[in-house]
Design a protein that fits this description.
By secondary structure, this protein is mainly beta. The chain is built from five helices and 33 strands.
């Protein structure tokens, strides 16, 4: 049946009419009171925060013209899209472009090849956490699942201070550990979760509920008591139906689920959105924060309150229990890349984080431009500089990422330029655990039993995976999309902003023969005094004269 569906999709594709959808974003600072608690400055679009959702149809191209009226460069990343043949449209500043300088504009051409639930967000200096983010929905032209209407729920955490102030606190020299946590307010569809509008249901109809986490740090749980959910999509990848009571969303994850309304409209029901983090103190009313909304069948109907059961009695979505609808088998492993989340305290007592041997910091030349200009040396990962933590992947090589998390807090790992299959999850060897592990007052004896779980049948794919505390995951992807793709933790700014990133450079030899970077991007760099040729500092070969000082790890430190 699946094969027939995909054949029909190809045939029908010849008769559908793709469109160019034009949209203008004028990015400015905006004063906002969106949580109803704190007035603060945010980064908004066209004078408003939240930024309205963006919709196109599969096969359309979004022409997103961005005018930067901030006092710093910015860029826009279309989270979850591959950008085949156009890696320069990925929007990761100082990776695939130089960023849009203040007072200038750039038009992103975003092709909607893959239907699904995505989002658009700033990708320069973690400005995503200051409000520069919006849901991005690419609607199926021919969905394998039938439903009557769609419902969109997007979730955010909102902090009382701007990101630059928080980053200055995190990276302040002389500190002996991370700063004290700041507690966020949860936003549901743009505003305080306590003010959520009802979801309108009509008896007997089928609804596709899209839930998108645009959080910078906090996790979310979503449930619809009294209604079963069938997950049909995760991070833009269509799945076989998977019945659950609820799902947990790490920062940047997305789900679609089919919910069938009851045949009767005698009662209304409650849906739950719980924002939480296991890695900061538990304080009732602050962590977790529980928000409820109304599933409304009839305005005057009473609410049917369901029996309260513990989370451990519910069926939660699990990547390893899901299966991609496309039936793609697990990729072979041509090569394994071992990454490990670690804290890194420098000799200046600055709290960095790392996935490889060093914390990631931006190169002085965008890594894509290095790949395009270094000839045969572009196949040497050293030319991208020690701070880029680059791994060069030959065309079509299948890579397994063994991602270890020996820490007592989770990490939401996102890969640009595509998605990965989720192969296995299990415990990190106790000898590798950080000393002392998080959370505070936590001993090795408290580390829970973690079973080894492996996919069965067809593995599920997605672009963002949650790596639980004291655990590893095995992920596989094929290097079939030549380009420069970040792989990073999506906890902002505390993790990615502190260096928890690496770079995959896929087939730079192919890029040099097939890719043409628009002149506009070269000119944009030139006007900012940024070089567009050479290694990570704009020199040739392995001459890194002018490289900013690489941090040195403090010997004998006990990072957390």
């Amino acid at each position: 049946m699946n094969i027939l569906f995909f054949i029909s999709l190809v045939l029908l594709g010849h008769v559908c009419v793709a469109e160019y959808v034009k949209l203008t974003w004028n990015i400015t600072y905006v004063d906002t009171f969106r949580d109803g608690i704190v007035h603060r400055r945010a980064k908004g679009v066209n004078g408003q925060v939240p930024v309205p959702p963006v919709y196109i149809n599969q096969g359309d191209t979004l022409l997103l013209t961005v005018h930067n009226n901030l006092d710093m460069p910015t860029s826009i990343h279309s989270h979850g899209l591959r950008h085949d043949g156009a890696t320069f449209m990925d929007g990761a500043a100082m990776v695939t472009q130089c960023g849009i300088p203040p007072g200038e504009s750039f038009t992103y051409e975003i092709y909607g090849a893959q239907a699904g639930s995505y989002w658009l967000h700033g990708h320069r200096k973690d400005d995503v956490a200051d409000g520069l983010r919006a849901p991005f929905i690419i609607r199926d032209r021919y969905s394998p699942y039938e439903y009557d209407e769609e419902v969109l729920i997007y979730l955010e955490d909102w902090y009382p201070t701007e990101v630059p102030a928080k980053m200055a606190e995190i990276l302040a020299p002389g500190s002996i550990g991370p700063p004290a946590p700041t507690f966020a307010t949860g936003l549901v569809n743009g505003f305080n979760g306590n003010d959520s509008r009802p979801i309108q249901f009509v008896a007997g109809k089928r609804y596709r509920i899209r839930v998108i986490s645009m959080s910078s740090t906090m996790y979310w749980r979503f449930t619809t008591p009294g209604h079963k959910m069938e997950i049909i999509e995760a991070d833009g990848i269509t799945s076989e139906p998977c019945e659950v009571d609820g799902f947990t969303l790490a920062p940047a994850q997305r789900y679609s689920a089919i919910v069938t309304a009851h045949e009767s409209s005698d009662f209304n029901f409650i849906y739950n959105c719980t924002m939480y983090a296991d890695f900061i103190p538990f304080i009732p009313g602050l962590n977790p924060r529980i928000y409820t909304g109304l599933i409304e069948y009839r305005q005057d109907a009473p609410i049917k309150h369901m029996e309260i059961v513990g989370d451990d009695q519910l069926v939660w979505a699990d990547d390893l229990n899901m299966h991609a609808l496309n039936g793609e088998p697990a990729l072979p492993m041509d090569r394994q890349v071992v990454l490990e989340t670690r804290a890194f305290i420098s000799t200046e007592r600055i709290n960095f984080r790392k996935l490889g041997s060093l914390p990631y910091t931006e190169p002085l030349v965008p890594s894509l431009f290095t790949a395009m200009s270094m000839g045969e040396q572009a196949m040497d990962p050293r030319v991208y500089g020690p701070q880029a933590q680059a791994y060069v992947i030959p065309l079509n090589q299948s890579v397994e990422i063994l991602l270890k998390n020996p820490q007592g807090q989770p990490h939401s790992q996102h890969q640009h330029g595509g998605w990965f299959q989720i192969i296995e999850r299990g415990p990190v060897d106790r000898s590798e655990l950080e000393q002392p592990p998080l959370p505070l007052n936590f001993s090795l004896a408290d580390v829970p039993f973690i079973p080894v779980q492996r996919y069965t049948g067809v593995p599920m794919s997605r672009d963002t995976v949650d790596v639980p505390p004291f655990s590893y995951v095995k992920l596989r992807f094929r290097g079939d999309n030549p380009g420069v793709h970040l792989h990073h933790c999506h906890l902002n700014p505390t993790h990615s902003g502190a260096g928890l990133s690496i770079t995959f450079v896929v087939a730079p030899d192919v890029l040099q023969k097939t890719l043409r970077i628009p002149d506009e991007l070269y000119e944009m760099c030139a006007r900012q005094g940024i070089k567009t040729e050479g290694n990570a500092v704009g020199n040739w070969g392995l001459d890194f004269t002018g490289l900013p000082t690489v941090p040195v790890e403090l010997v004998g430190s006990s990072p957390r």
